[in-house]
Amino acid sequence: MAAPSTAGVAGRLRAWVPRLMQVRWSRYNPSYLEPEVNKELYQKPLEELTEEEREQRELKAVRPIKAAPPTLSSSLFSDPMISKFTNMMMKGGNKVLARSLMTQTLETIKRKQLEKYHKAPENEKETIECNPYVIFHQALKNCQPIIGLSNITKGGKTYQVPVPLKDNRKRFLAMKWMITECRENKHRRTFMPEKLSQELLLAFNNEGPIIKKKHTLHKMAEANRAYAHFRWW
Amino acid sequence: MLRTLKGLSCLSLKLDHGHGLPTAGRACLSSVANQDVPSLEQPRVVFHTSESDPAKHSEQHEGRHYNIALQELRVLFPHGLPYRFQQQVQTFNEARVMVRKPALELFGYLRSSNLAHPAVSPRGDGERGTGKTMTLCHVIHYCSRQGWLVLHIPDAHLWVKNCRELLQSSYHKDRLDQPLQASAWLKNFKISNEPFLREIKTQKRYMWGKRESTEEGRPLGEVVEQGLARVRSASDAVGVVLKELKQQSQRGAFRLLVAVDGVNALWGRTTLRKEDKSPVSPEELTLVHNLRKMVRNDWSGGAIVTTLSQTGSLFKPSSAYLPQELLGKEGFDALDPFVPILVSNYSPREFESCYGYYLERRWLQHEKGGAAPGGCQDHPSPRLWSDYLNVPLHPKSLYVIRQYLHDGDCGCLEAFGQGESLLQDPTCLEELEDRLHFYVEECDCLQGFQVLCDLHNGFSGVGAKVTELLHDEYSGKGILSWGLTPAMSNVGASLNYHSSAVLAAALDTLTAPYRLWSCQGSLVHFADSLTFCGRKSIPVLAALQACPGLQQLLSGLCQDLQARPVRRCSSFFTAGVEQDDFQEALEELRTLSQCYETGFGADESEDEADSD
Question: In this protein, which residues make up the domain named Small ribosomal subunit protein uS7 (chain A) (predicted)?
Fold first, then answer.
């Protein structure tokens, strides 16, 4: 999509409207720069910056910068995967609740693992992973499918064709399965942190219903291997 | 014994320059060799105390955590611990409570209280989340260890809200009973005070309803059983228990501690309603009525410790924490002669202690969570010797050798020849001389140079060349060079630099004569005192290490030197060492190694001094 020509200098910026209306677009003029959140970059002395970084610094002096969204944080403890998961858990815009559920989940995982750790004999202590972030990332990685199915209609019939998945799609599917599993297939009176922590720990050990779902998807894709040539992309 | 040795190893392993005590160092290393003390034990010494009897806690234990055995915890505190603390006990598989000032103050009052006088009634106030309940629990532990009878009401607010069943009291027409709350409390009371309930006898006959009764002289446990069995009469049973205990403690048979958490619930409002929807005031509840009598200061032979709490209180704003606000006028007057004890948030020292405890128990899991503001014991594993250096180095004094890698499979500075060739490179030499000249010009009176280098890698070549260079440029000044070899295997791998810490301490002591302002000796004099046969180089080898390895090291080195004299010592020979002097030195080395073999002469020996 060719962007219309803009007045690049900060003083003469007109409201920018694209020639063709896009589905997902931003009202910012393309000359606006993204906000830089990394604290370490600012603390580097001038000599240590590479050429590109120096250019960026100079550009910042003349170009305007977009407003930082509330989810963008310079905190050491912020994690994009966890933010994405929290957003997916959120209902009705209640980010406060979603975030508190997420922190409670991580705390529950940590407590369960620490209890196991402190009760285990010395030689087994190294095998127990206590860091909830590591468990979260590994569990979601284990849940990611490698190959997906897509509906392709050919000659009046719809076939389930195995198709490679992009990274974003894999991550999305893993998180989506995790959340729907916890919402639907558990006893209604258990709390979400409890359910989520249980599922995450099972997925970390490559067990549980979500891993099973992934395997069935893989098997289906394997079974429909013959239709793979229907895919044209 | 183990504790004292651990303490010793902890103390001597700090890099205290100028306190080089070889004896302490040796004792430290021998103790380390004998018991595999893991370095993680060190923080325990600072944040924990092994004194588990609260009676012995004093100011020296302030800020430290002490352990309560889990079985004791189950007996002492069937109810009453904060929920978060219970979770923590569950997670860490141990119960550690911090010793804090308010608790120590309370112990002082309790110890000095006179039995004949009315009960001491200290009262803990403080804002939300400052540790009033934990202080109360600490006091309860103290009193139960001293043999007192503890009457612990974990949260008085539970009696004035959320009551499903309110029965009209059979004993008194206007009052209301709470069977569920009363029976729950009786059950927990029984668990924590079993032995007392067997010994204390009732003073009069009590009728429960029309048919059941408890005779005079029966153990109090029967009253409690009655309350548990017949839930309807539980509240009356509680009343009886309280009355009996109050009367009998005055006689002095036992000391009674009344510990009430959230005492402001007794005077205030309730959320309960009678059947005709009219609100219930606290004095209409049997439990509250009886408890008010207990908390009043008209009996002797014990103490009343209470805390005010806003969390869980009814109809009080969340900012209220002062006694007048929480108790109201009536409550304040009822509790009137009292001793206020302020419980405040953690002081920085207490915070550090708590932080260290959490780190040690692996509660802080995030990799960025370990960086404590006040400096924590758990440093990331050091990779370089300079990680241990307390001295700030001037940037101009550092020269980084870029041609070789520090660690890796290849490309490291490993051979003597590599080190030598490095210094033959003109740019390298220039840089080195630049820096050297900068510092030499800064000196008022240059005594000499001290060269420390590794012997086991290419830095030996660098050291040798540098010594030559210095000898050429500054021929009048003394040069002391020290060669260092890595420690033997009996000092564990994790204590990699600890042996060098001890060496550094020894070096400091030895070189003190010419470094201190007050002493008159100079480096040249020192060098002369070592080289007693004139201007010759004498390799006198040793290391401050534990005895078992030393013999092998020395004999090994002896053999090594004999086998390959030329390659290693080419620069020594170019500097003017004679062959027979070298042989003499080798003989001395052999005898030295034999000394260690036979086990005598276990005092520390000199470091290698190669002086020109």
Answer: 68-225
- Shortest distance between the Cα of A108 and any Cα of chain B, in A, equals 10
Please identify which residue in the block is written with the tokens 């001491």.
Answer: B120
Name the more confident of A137 and B409.
A137
Three-state DSSP at B458 gives: coil
Contact A130 B365 (CB under 8 A): yes
Inspect the interface and report whether the beta carbons of A110 and B93 lie closer than 8 Å: no
pLDDT above 90: residue A52:
no
Residues A97-111, mean pLDDT to the nearest whole number: 97
Residue, of B29 and A49, whose pLDDT is higher? A49
Closest CA to A146 of A183, A178, A173, A176: A173
Per residue in B97-147, pLDDT (tens digit) is: 999 999 999 999 888 887 777 777 888 888 888 999 999 999 999 999 999
How many CA atoms lie within 13 Å of B170's alpha carbon, on the beta-carbon side?
A: 12
Contacts A133 to B, Cβ<8 Å:
365-366
* B363 interfaces chain A, CB cutoff of 8 Å: yes
Cβ under 8 Å to A: B residues 366-425 = 366-369
Residues recorded for chain B = 612
Chain A, residues 34-93, CB within 8 A of chain B, namely 76-77
The answer to whether B189 and B224 have CB atoms below 8 angstroms apart is yes
B interface mutation test: which of A78, A110, A128 has the most B CBs within 10 A?
A: A110
- B363 and A77 within 8 Å at the Cβ level: the answer is no
The ipTM assigned to this model is 0.85
* Residues in chain A within 8 Å Cβ distance of B91: 111, 114-115, 118
Give the other-Cβ count within 10 Å of B382's Cβ.
11
Contact A111 B94 (CB under 8 A): no
**Strand-pair partners of A165:** none
Query: What parts of chain B have a pLDDT lower than 50?
Result: 1-43, 375-379, 493, 536-547, 567, 599-612
Closest CA to B439 of B486, B393, B488, B490: B393
- Mean pLDDT over A63-88 rounds to 93
d(CA A139, CA A143): 6
Average pLDDT, chain A: 90
The alpha carbon torsion through B353, B358, B360, B365 (nearest 10 deg) reads -140
Q: Which of A77, A111, A115 sits opposite B366 (nearest CB)?
A: A77
pTM, rounded to two decimals: 0.65
**Chain B contacts of A114, Cβ < 8 Å?**
91-92, 361-363
Look at A93-102, A193-202, B8-17, B278-287 and tell me which has the smallest mean pLDDT: B8-17
* Interchain contact B362–A (C-beta under 8 A): yes
Which residue in this structure is represented by tokens 């020594």?
A: B572
